[in-house]
Structure formats: C-alpha cells, structure tokens
Amino acid sequence: MQKINKDQVVEVRNFLLELQNNIISMICSYDNSEFNKDNWSRDEGGGGITCVLQNGNVFDKVGVNFSDIFGDHLPSAATNLRPELQGRNFQAMGVSVVCHPKNPNVPTAHLNVRLFIAYSENLPPIWWFGGGFDMTPYYGYEEDAVHWHQTAKDLCAPYGEKIYNQYKKNCDDYFFIKHRNEPRGIGGIFFDDLNIWEFQKCFNFIQSVGNGFIDAYQPIVEKRIHETYTDTQKDFQIFRRGRYVEFNLVYDRGTLFGLQSNGRTESILMSMPPLVKWEYKHKVEEGSAEEKLYSNFLVAKKWV
Fold first, then answer.
1. Which of 40, 47, 38, 50 is nearest to 92 (CA)?
2. Segments of the chain assigned E as strands
3. Which of 73, 100, 110, 226 is catalytic?
4. Are 96 and 134 contacting, i.e. CB atoms less than 8 angstroms apart?
5. CA distance 298 to 137
6. Beta-bridge partners for 48
7. Distance between the two ends of the chain, CA-based, in angstroms?
8. How many Cβ atoms are within 10 Å of 50's Cβ, its own excluded?
C-alpha cells in the first residue's frame, strides 16, 4: 500500500470542510432558514463541526456534519471484518449529510465520504476511503431515479467500467432492511476499504462522489419542491421515515462506529428525522401512488 503523509491528510481535510460549506450553500439556496453551527471536541482526541437546519421552509431537517477524530483503538464496528486492525491507533475524518424534506415529493438524500488511517508503532499506516450516496423517495418519479443513478454512473466511469455496477450492488446490499425484507430506498453507490488505487486517485474519486451528490440531488429538489401534496401524503412520508430510523439504529455502521468510539451523540444521531411514526400492520391501497413506491421503486432494479 502506498504511504500517506501529513500534507495529503491536510488536503483531504480541507476538501471535506469545503464540501460541507458547498452543501450548506446548496441547501440555503432553497431554504432561507439558518443552520445551527456547533464546533465540538472530544476528550479522546479531535472534534468536528455539526451544522443542522431544523423546521425550515423547504426542509424539515438537514444535517451536514464534519468530524476529524482520533483514538487509541478502533471500535468493533471497524474491526469485525478486519481483525488485523485491532489494537491500532486511528484517525477518522469525514462529512456526513442527511436531508429530510418537508414535501413528500422530494426524496430524502444521504451522503457520506470518509478517510480512515490506522497507525501502529512498528508498522506503516493503513489507510482507506469509504462512502457513497443513496436516495430514499416517498413518492417515486422514474426520471428522478434515472437522473440520480446516471449521475452516479457518470462519475464512476473514469475509474473503470465495472465500478458503478459494483458500487451500486454494494449500496443495494448494504441499505437493505433485513427485518422488513425491503430496501431503504432506490440506492446509489456505496463503497468501503477503498485503497485499490494509489492515494491521489482514491482521493480524486472521493471528491467526485462528494461533488456528484450535489449534482445528483440539486436538480431533483428544484423540480419537486413546488409540487402540491396532501395531509395523507405527508402522513405516509412520516410513516416511511420510520424505516429510515430502523436502518440507522440497527444496521448503519457509521452510527455504530460513532457510538462505540464515544463520539458526540448529538452529531451521530443528527440523521434522525424530526417527526416519525410507526403504525401496526400498515397497509396501502392497491393501485395507489403509495403502493407504486413498493412495487416499482423499492425493488432491485437497473435504473441506467
């Protein structure tokens, strides 16, 4: 594995901070509500900047979190699949984003890009990138799903013919709610342990993913924020958000990593929607727009 130096780590950090600002600017171009900005630190080392918009004009909640933390040992969420990392010191930095719109015609969107470095006194550092983005619609629009996946496919194209298909499958497999036997949404791309290329090429890919999230989500927001919706549609959105919460609390490795590493709970759980409901044996009307979501969108599908 190629070595990593301090200048490269600083370059990644600067990009992540810029990405955080760019995503906040994108959100603020539609929603004139202010983000609450928290600079925080942790006793174990490092800290971050958590920016949250709540009860806005267009979004019920948006969280855009930057973190750069250090620790004496990686938690089990990071070492279960890589036991050779046990006992190493670590540095983990990244940006995570979750957008929960008011209008149920606008999908929820999620982005995460991150860099991990595991250190040992007698061995060279082990580094890898991870991340991706995925979309969770409440009312399905095929052209939006195609645009979302075409953007993902296009940004993957310079890195190899198989990258998009592989990372799309990773996303479909990862964002699957096993106890419900259904996907969280329509997916996107997802990857972990990315060090298959030299460092700069991997970092270039991470930049493409972060910037690609804006390219993928912005046109959909612009197209859907003015759609009218009913109380029934809003109620269905709130019900479907329950699936989002279930995945994040039961399966999401980022949530588990943060909690296991004694992270800042407010920042870790910023992805939670502000209003959510569960309903016993919820049923949708056959032939309805809600039923179409299940039959046409929450299925394994090749969009592009």
1. 47
2. 36-41, 46-54, 59-71, 89-101, 108-119, 126-136, 176-177, 182-183, 187-194
3. 110
4. no
5. 9
6. 40, 67
7. 34
8. 23
What radius of gyration, in Å, describes the C-alpha atoms of the chain? 19
- Location of structure tokens 């190899």: 160
- Cα 189 from Cα 212, distance rounded (Å): 11
pTM: 0.93
State the Cα–Cα distance between residues 81 and 128, nearest whole angstrom: 14
Q: What is the pLDDT of residues 157-171, one digit of tens each?
A: 999 999 999 999 999
Q: Which residues contact 10 (CB under 8 A, 6 or more apart)?
A: none
Instruction: Classify 293 as helix, strand or coil.
Output: helix
Give DSSP secondary structure letters for 224-269.
HTT----HHHHHHHHHHHHHHHHHHHHT-HHHHHHHHTT--HHHHG
- Would you say 187 and 138 are in contact if contact means Cβ atoms under 8 Å apart? no
Instruction: Give the C-alpha separation, 168 to 63, whole Å.
Output: 24
Burial class, 60, CB count within 10 angstroms (exposed 0-12 / middle 13-18 / buried 19+): buried
The two tokens of residue 63 are: 């969280």
Q: Which residues of the chain, if any, have pLDDT below 50?
A: none
Q: Express each pLDDT in 179-228 by its tens digit.
A: 999 999 999 999 998 999 999 999 999 999 999 999 999 999 999 999 99
Spatial separation of the C-alpha atoms in residues 304 and 229, rounded to whole Å: 28
**Running DSSP on this structure, what letter comes out for residue 24?**
H
Architecture of domain 6-297: 3-Layer(aba) Sandwich (3.40)
Distance from C-alpha of 68 to C-alpha of 159, rounded to nearest angstrom: 27
110 a catalytic residue: yes
Enter the tokens of residue 124: 């060279």
Going by C-alpha positions, the residue among 272, 266, 196 that lies closest to residue 2 is 196
Domain boundaries, the chain: 6-297
Question: What gap in Å lies between CA 73 and CA 90, rounded to an integer?
Answer: 6
